[in-house]
């Protein structure tokens, strides 16, 4: 099976889907001639032409709004926000329109749009190129938020997102783009949205996380295994709506739960995960639910020591896991 | 010049902390290696802490009276030359550092009784008494895995679930009296007496006192000849006037109460990390019935006359016999006087009425030949006063002085010196 990088899996999924269905088109800033600032859409303009790979003005509200309108007319747009940090001007379109059309029209209208955006820090991107913004959308029924961790999941989930009849926010960790490599089959396959996956089986502590932090947890688990601490790792994959069943099962497995995100600690996805566990797993819990997250400060700093302080890394995850295992 | 830390040493197995009782050095003092720098008290020993370095004391981190964990920094010292630090000097300190985590792991049982929901559920479902489970978690906490392991082992050998290890150490104490049954064979003709609530309460309290408080015991002989003749002279009139008997007990309580005021440490309680000297002097008195023993309380006994004490004793005894004691009558005691003499006993070793500091038993007053001053032998009225004390709170010195004071007061009780009103 060919080994591909995280970003190659994005390009591959887009390529295969556009070949499969000519209603699918891409729009965003520099996605066409330039092939995207991260090269996620590289080669697609040449292959599918300017009508299906559209360079837009620097107007996120328009990218989302045009995409939503086209989706309602039966197209399958894949909109790209150059950085997730810049999605905020489009929030009104996404939350007030895309998320609510199906409900508002009593199922007459749907918005089958996929909005891709690179998020996350650790790349010296400073304030406006490092943020995690998933929590902003995680209280909006009608939306789905997908945040894959592996190239395999990227391809399968992006295809599932494009084929979904409802709006999907597809957040890709920009540091994972070329850092994370994995086997990605050439065959057509999808990974179901809304399903978490156990990435490692273990007995002592359960770690639940998503995106790049999954790899930090896996690395930490590898080290801790040498000390005889066995970790159970659940990759949430879809952070909204959450896979409650999988969360409950993974929490009950060890009774000691560590939740990890690189987003700010307060008000994030993992707070909701903690609530689900508290509601359903009280009699299985053997330790207080622990959260490892970014500090509650406005954004990722630029200064390298401060960025390091803000970012989650394998050492921090390992430390938190060991603490919990020893509790 | 490097600055080194001097740590609280480990002064014995299972010792986890020590109290700086006295500093032997001040900031700026120059010390030689192995010079004593502080006196440290632990629950096992008192000892002097030597310095592992030669140099000048730069800071005393702990104050006198501070209790610190083993391995905590107590002071810093500026060491002359770095070769000292590389030499043999730091070795003991390094060794101590390595011991610390192990020691706190095994000795720290602070989390032993913090049960997680998972552990409680497994204990309930599998009928496991958590008192007897060894915890491998932090601070001795019983983890869910400990329970799962225990249950898995129990499934292999059926008796594990029921097998209750022998109660060891203080943790086991509260479990012992409520243990369902001992396999004690009874043969034909034996009478099995069911345990009443009162009996069980007595059993629990006695066991708790004996297991928790290290008892020490001491006794004095008191010559109460003058007191006896004083009391015998007035008892007839007293009965006629007041309507109840004037016994010796109120005199003994009076003398005790007065001495307690002079020795407040006798009127105190052990509270784990401190001793509480009680403001009120409330005397518990032991009143026996055929089935049980009650210890009702004379509140504010120091504010009562001998007659007042006599009336309270009489009143409480009647209440006990007519089964009318209220909970309030039983509460608030700070010291116990036990009238064992009423059974004819001349010597007893009472168990402290938990959580009080001590208990005094007044034995029978008996005629004894006594060699008086000047060598004459006389028939005197002698009584033994026996004192059990909680050795955590009290040492022999205070107890001895207290008893001597009680003795002195009693020996000077006579018609001339004492008013019963």
Automatic annotation (TrEMBL), chain A:
Q: Which Pfam families does this UniProt record tie to the protein?
A: Transket_pyr, Transketolase_C
Q: Which InterPro entries match?
A: THDP-binding, Transketo_C/PFOR_II, Transketolase-like_Pyr-bd, Transketolase_C
Which branch of life, at top level? Bacteria
Keywords for this protein: Oxidoreductase, Thiamine pyrophosphate
Gene3D superfamilies per the UniProt record, alphabetical: 3.40.50.920, 3.40.50.970
Q: Taking every annotated instance into account, which residue ranges of this chain make up the domain Transketolase-like pyrimidine-binding?
A: 4-179
NCBIfam families attached here? PRK09212.1
This protein is called 2-oxoisovalerate dehydrogenase subunit beta
Organism of provenance: Pullulanibacillus camelliae
From TrEMBL, chain B:
Q: Where is this region: Disordered?
A: 155-189
Q: Which PROSITE patterns match?
A: BIOTINYL_LIPOYL (PS50968), LIPOYL (PS00189), PSBD (PS51826)
Judged by the first EC level, this protein's enzyme class is transferase
Q: Where is the composition biased (Low complexity)?
A: 170-183
Kindly provide the name given to this protein in its UniProt entry.
Dihydrolipoamide acetyltransferase component of pyruvate dehydrogenase complex
Q: Which family does it belong to?
A: Belongs to the 2-oxoacid dehydrogenase family.
* Domain (Peripheral subunit-binding (PSBD)): residue spans on this chain: 114-151
Q: Which CDD domains does this one have?
A: lipoyl_domain
Which one Pfam family would you cite for this protein?
Answer: E3_binding
Q: What is its EC number?
A: 2.3.1.-
Q: Which UniProt keywords apply?
A: Acyltransferase, Lipoyl, Pyruvate, Transferase
